[in-house]
Amino acid sequence: MSAFNSIQHKPPYGMIAILFIGAFISILNETLLNVALPSIMVEFQINPTAVQWLSTGYMLINGILIPASAFFIQRFTNRSLFLTAMTLFTLGTLLASLSPTFGVLLTARMIQAAGSAMMMPLLMNIMLTAFPIEKRGTAMGIFGLVMFVAPAIGPTLSGWLVEHYSWRMLFDIVLPFAIFILVYSIFKLKNITPQRDIKLDVLSIVLSSLGFGGLLYGFSSAGDKGWEHPLVYGTIIIGIISVITLIFRQLRMDEPMLEFRIFKYPMFALSSAISIVLSTAMFSAMILVPIYIQTIRGFSPMDAGLLMLPGAVIMGLMSPITGRLFDKYGARTLAIIGLTIVVTTTFFFSQLDMEMSYVSLMVLFTVRSFGMSMVMMPVMTNGLNQLPMEANPHGTAMNNTLQQVSGAIGAALLVTVMNNRTEAKTTELTDAAMVAMDPNLVQSEQAMAEMQGQIINEAMLNGINFSFLVSTIIGGAALVLAFFIRRVKSDGTIEKRDEKKKATNSVIAK
């Protein structure tokens, strides 16, 4: 039986549903804590650098374990993997809720991350195993609900909970769902993915951890510590050297931990390139809009979260629809239309001023989210469709790893661009104000403070706009790449232009 025919005849919808819920709450938990960090600082009397490790540590554990997920998915059954992951996540959630000290809370977050890291690659691999190529778009469209909606609603939900309850409620509200999913899966979860008796290469794990972990930490710390900090450029250099060494080692192995030879499949390589570019640009709105809303315009964190909520709802509603459209028309048309919307709306975000209404910002962000919903999953699914069945674990692990790293790089790049532009503009505006100031008039301290505040806000606004402009250019690169997408047929081959024209002419003739 060929790899492309070894698909489940009847997809296990009940099992997939429980996996969806498990993945949803684990990804939701990743962004749920961000708004609560100030409250945690006050309770445990710690500084911002220390509390940030609750987010950074979670991300690092994901960056270390996700590349190794290809090995775990091939070596162990999907049932044992999910039960282990869900057990770790549940224990971590319980420990976090009860944590008496910051050290215990940080340990709990690490345990949570160890469980959640396996969720996305495992769920994606099960989807690829359970559905044939011609139906994967619809299935992966529903999968987009987990991938995009969970992190989007996290800040809004946590903002409301922290405003009305203790930060511990963020864990208390997740815990019952985690326990239910764990108990239900013990009785109902079955095995559908094939296993192989492969051995784990310890050196590959070490290189992967140093490589991807170093890159994630270095780029994530750049916005706070600055690029000149030894810890930033040191970990990035270690990460680059380790990743290069890892690639060469994997290419020489018969049973690699992470198969880099999958990039010989052109549609997978192209989908990875588009995903990297888009992930780099995608974080612009998620990072810059809250800064603009809260710091410059003076809205509350809750308002910032609510502004993004309609976009999350639109992405959730569109994901299954986009999946069906992908099955019917392929990824190319969807990607071109979606990226055109994303690039256009990102450009409009580069024209922000002090007067733009809250509703206008919400509409613009929602339209941008609508465009984003038409791109990520269709492009990713089209690339995975070209891989043979035995390469699916490597494809899902590679996709998730590249998104983590490119997201961190994109966030660091855009924050750096914003900061540099803000500093330059502050100097320029301050010099201009000093020249224009009448030396014969004595300025009061209040007037000077007001002038300085206006200069800082105007400079930061200029920095945000310039970062969005850079993001627009990056998104434009993804749009250009989208024109090279070709549809993958049910036998794993790429549809050629003349085949598509014949099919179109046949439909027209009928």
UniProtKB/TrEMBL annotation:
Subcellular location: Cell membrane
Keywords, comma-separated and alphabetical: Cell membrane, Membrane, Transmembrane, Transmembrane helix, Transport
Topological relation to the membrane, as annotated: Multi-pass membrane protein
Pfam family, one: MFS_1
Coiled-coil spans in chain: none
Domain Major facilitator superfamily (MFS) profile: 15-490
The keyword Transport is annotated on this UniProt entry: yes
Similarity annotation: Belongs to the major facilitator superfamily. EmrB family.
The protein's name in its UniProt record: EmrB/QacA subfamily drug resistance transporter
